[in-house]
Target: Response regulator
Amino acid sequence: MISSENNPPAPEELNDKEPLRIILAEDDAEDQELFVDALEQTDVPSEVTIVENGQELLDNLRDETQPDPDMIFIDFNMPVKGGVQALEEIKADEGLRDIPAVMLSTWDHPSAVEDAFEKGADLYVQKPSSFSGFVLILKKVFLLHWAKGLLGPVRKLFFVSEKNISRGDS
Model:
């Protein structure tokens, strides 16, 4: 199988590949379960590590016995250390800054989105209100990742919500 940046692999072509290593930083058990279930529906081979706050995320990323993830999903609001604060520390760390970081939040307020991008988020995803919306959003995130779209994001494109996915916007 040959793929290029312009033609990212289809999920069914990924079964021969190494699983995508993902860390999900999310304190809500229902949101954790929703994420994992939606991820399974994308048919993307993956391994998910779940941490419940920003400090656990940083500890995991700095643990040299753990492999670096391919992508991290960070909830905006978490106890102990919030998502934006953890993101800021990750992007300030030379060994971690290149890991694509996707912020997850129920908020779509422009100041929250702007703050996440200022701290280094590669993508800001508004948590969907439906399971099918979550599956669609994850597929879009992975498509952007494989197309190297998470490098140097364009903010209009890189705020993803269920509304703009269902309308077919980029």
Remarks:
- The chain has one domain: 11-166.
- The helical segments are 29-41, 54-62, 83-92, 110-118, 131-146, 162-166.
- Residues 11-166 form a domain with the Rossmann fold fold (CATH 3.40.50.2300).
- Residues 131-146 form the longest helix (16 residues).
